[in-house]
Design the sequence.
């Protein structure tokens, strides 16, 4: 029961991500990406991590997908216009291989060095939301703070980039 | 998985569960688990489907009365059969799909929208024993399910291949990005004070009365009231209701993302709108209005689900009242209200709630200090930021209006 | 303070909502097919022909088929055929009458010019607004039987105007009779043919426009 479900989830994640890369229609790709993210949330649910799963949907399907779609809509003039894809050169292929090799090796190392837990433990969630909060605010408080600072800096940077605007016209006021 | 109805409670309180248990008892053992789940789903669909039908009627009646006209009154007694006539009409209408539309997404959008808007009902505690699914992170689940609905609106708008629909899709996205934040921030204080993300426990935390008369609902505290108001404003925007119905905006965008929809798909969009409205109101009842708790100790003899239904209906009537009153906001006003007013207020409200939580032990005259400080923390930012928001434009003067 | 305007607005709609159940001033809608609105006196839509007597409408038409209205009508929606014979009118004088008098209401624009040029007060504006038909050509072309309505109906829809018209007509009739009597007394000659009504009628009509020659 657990393993077929995992295989199904993995298939959905990988298939939607793969098809998203192949499709020419950017909106379709973006929507498939959302499906892929939702699949990841399903995987978290499968693994018994309720909180992370819902947070994944809330942040990725709810928030980031909007930003992606918005960016696509605002930057593309016509929806069927073909992307100007330049033919692959040796340099490009090499760069691509290098990048995938690095990501792949890191992933493989991470998988190999972590001690795997039997999926049987997934049935009952080990951590409640409260425990998660206690862990985040206790042992991992420094990391949490660091992430918060980085995000704040990013936000400030975005505000500074967007800040210079002409004086408001009277009709722009509420 | 089968929760057997507790027998200790009063009869009316457990009657729905006992009915379910009796029915399940008639079935063979292997079917019981799945039937129990199905009955819950069917009950929710039936109750809220019927509620949807009569909410449309009530909305049309109320809007009519506000505008000095009677509203639908021909089909059946007082127009009571009108929703069914509308349903038949929607089912028998031709389903027109534009030739250039994205066929798959155009078809999927209403289905996804209704499915997503129904998900939220799973975690609402409708009564003392009536919780469809008990989740540890129920509140988070609810908002995760709700956040994705706007994606379906986007799909509908984009797939129609109509410039009005596309504009509506973009507006829906912008609106969601703006209002998701105040919506989430407004209920964080509740989670802080209740110390849990589970809806049942949040309702339990609001139990009890002071002197048997004043309930311990969160809306009756300064931070709770502020949070409730912010939540309701964001909920209006989230469910695309007037005055935040910019994606639909009949006067500007024909019908926005609904322009290219007809027949039952169009009806599905409306169904999703009302389901979303019901779910968000139900969540507001759960988070701020004490859920199924009775307002006074001696009123407890009325079953808890009746209290939930009553509070839900009051909020829904409020939605309609607001729709009958307020004109639609402009896009820039909408985003300004969210980012420059609601988000900071919600953040300050977080601080107020923290203060309230830390001073829980204060008694006697200190209680007055606690209330005064909390009220000041709520009212001052509201007044100051309200002034800034409306600086130079309010009160308006009209050049040609004779005084 | 921010929000007071919203609350004021909500109070207004709430008052209307509650008031619509007990205050007729806040519930102004008429349920049309059952309850018909009381039209203002000045309301006008499509002309009709005035008859003196409701029991014999075709015999007592005021119209003498002079065809002024037919010529004046801007969209030319009036069609008149004169009769070959003469019939006595309300005053007993023999007059030509319209053998055919038809108005195409699909063309008529309710401009009231026919009423203003009529020297005999024979055509007046109606208040008919339920004009939907299933037959576009036949049912919208009204003949004289459909157009003829008694003077009492005219009194009913335009009371003030009808009283004025009646007074004027009575005055004209009296003047004509006196003139005829005086003529008879002075000359004791046989009756002069039909001189009376026209000259005084034209200047006293609402529009001072004299009937054009062509």
Sequence:
């Amino acid at each position: 029961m657990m393993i077929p479900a995992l295989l199904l989830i993995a298939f959905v994640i990988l298939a939607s991500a793969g098809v998203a890369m192949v499709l020419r229609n950017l909106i379709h790709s973006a929507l498939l990406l959302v499906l892929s993210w939702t699949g990841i949330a399903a995987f978290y649910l499968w693994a018994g991590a309720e909180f992370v799963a819902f947070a994944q949907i809330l942040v990725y399907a709810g928030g980031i997908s909007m930003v992606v779609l918005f960016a696509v809509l605002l930057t593309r003039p016509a929806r069927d216009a073909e992307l100007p894809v330049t033919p692959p050169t040796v340099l490009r292929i090499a760069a691509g291989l290098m990048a995938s090799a690095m990501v792949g090796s890191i992933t493989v190392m991470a998988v190999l060095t972590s001690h795997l837990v039997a999926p049987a433990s997934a049935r009952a969630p080990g951590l409640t939301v409260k425990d998660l909060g206690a862990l985040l605010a206790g042992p991992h408080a420094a990391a949490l703070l660091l992430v918060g600072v980085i995000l704040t800096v990013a936000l400030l940077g975005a505000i500074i980039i967007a800040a210079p605007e002409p004086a408001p016209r009277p009709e722009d006021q509420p | 998985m089968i929760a057997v109805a507790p027998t200790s409670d009063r009869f009316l309180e457990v009657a729905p569960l006992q009915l379910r248990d009796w029915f399940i008892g008639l079935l063979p053992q292997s079917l019981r688990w799945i039937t129990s789940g199905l009955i819950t789903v069917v009950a929710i669909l039936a109750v809220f489907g019927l509620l949807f039908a009569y909410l449309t009627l009530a909305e049309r009646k109320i809007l009519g009365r506000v505008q000095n006209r009677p509203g639908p009154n021909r089909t059946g007694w007082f127009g009571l059969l009108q929703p069914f006539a509308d349903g038949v009409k929607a089912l028998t209408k031709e389903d027109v799909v534009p030739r250039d539309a994205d066929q798959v997404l155009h078809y999927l959008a209403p289905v996804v929208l209704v499915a997503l808007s129904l998900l939220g009902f799973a975690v609402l505690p409708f009564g003392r024993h009536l919780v469809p699914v008990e989740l540890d992170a129920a509140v988070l689940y609810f908002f995760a399910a709700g956040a994705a609905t706007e994606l379906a609106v986007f799909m509908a708008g984009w797939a129609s291949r109509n410039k009005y629909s596309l504009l509506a899709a973009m507006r829906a996205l912008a609106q969601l990005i703006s209002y998701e934040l105040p919506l989430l921030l407004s209920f964080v204080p509740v989670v802080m004070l209740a110390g849990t993300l589970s809806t049942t426990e949040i309702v339990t935390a609001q139990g009890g009365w002071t002197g048997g008369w004043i309930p311990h609902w969160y809306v009756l505290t300064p931070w709770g009231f502020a949070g409730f108001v912010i939540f309701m404003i964001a909920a209006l925007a989230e469910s695309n209701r007037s005055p935040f119905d910019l994606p639909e905006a009949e006067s500007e965008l024909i019908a926005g993302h609904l322009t290219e929809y007809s027949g039952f798909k169009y009806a599905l969009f409306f169904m999703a709108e009302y389901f979303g409205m019901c779910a968000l109101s139900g969540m507001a009842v759960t988070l701020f209005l004490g859920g199924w708790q009775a307002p006074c100790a001696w009123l407890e003899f009325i079953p808890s689900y009746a209290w939930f239904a009553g509070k839900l209906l009051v909020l829904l009537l409020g939605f309609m009242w607001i729709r009958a009153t307020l004109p639609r906001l402009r896009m820039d006003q909408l985003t300004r209200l969210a980012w420059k007013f609601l988000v900071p207020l919600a953040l300050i409200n977080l601080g107020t709630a923290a203060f309230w939580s830390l001073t829980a032990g204060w008694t006697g005259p200190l209680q007055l200090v606690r209330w005064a400080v909390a009220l000041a923390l709520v009212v001052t930012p509201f007044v100051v930021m309200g002034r800034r928001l409306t600086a130079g434009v309010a009160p308006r003067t009209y050049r040609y209006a004779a005084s | 303070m921010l929000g007071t305007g919203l609350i004021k607005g909500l109070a207004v709609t709430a008052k209307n909502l509650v008031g619509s159940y007990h205050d007729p001033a806040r519930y102004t809608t008429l349920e049309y097919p059952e309850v018909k609105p009381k039209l203002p006196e000045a309301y006008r839509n499509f002309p009709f022909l005035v008859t003196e007597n409701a029991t014999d409408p075709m015999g007592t038409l005021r119209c003498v088929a002079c065809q002024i209205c037919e010529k004046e009508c801007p969209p030319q929606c009036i069609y008149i055929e004169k009769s070959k014979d003469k019939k006595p009118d309300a005053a007993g004088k023999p007059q030509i009458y319209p053998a055919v008098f038809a108005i195409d209401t699909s063309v008529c624009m309710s401009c009231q010019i026919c009423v203003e040029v009529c020297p005999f007060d024979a055509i007046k504006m109606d208040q008919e607004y339920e004009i939907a038909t299933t037959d576009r050509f036949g049912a919208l072309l009204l003949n004289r039987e459909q157009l003829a309505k008694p003077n009492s109906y005219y009194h009913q829809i335009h009371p003030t105007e009808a009283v004025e018209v009646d007074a004027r007509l009575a005055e004209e009739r009296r003047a004509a009779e006196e003139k005829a009597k005086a003529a008879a007394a002075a000359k004791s000659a046989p009756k002069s043919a039909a001189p009376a009504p026209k000259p005084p009628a034209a200047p006293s009509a609402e529009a001072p426009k004299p009937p054009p020659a062509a």
In short: The two ends of chain A are 57 Å apart (CA to CA). Residues 119 and 141 of chain A are 29 Å apart (CA to CA). The mean pLDDT of chain A is 79.
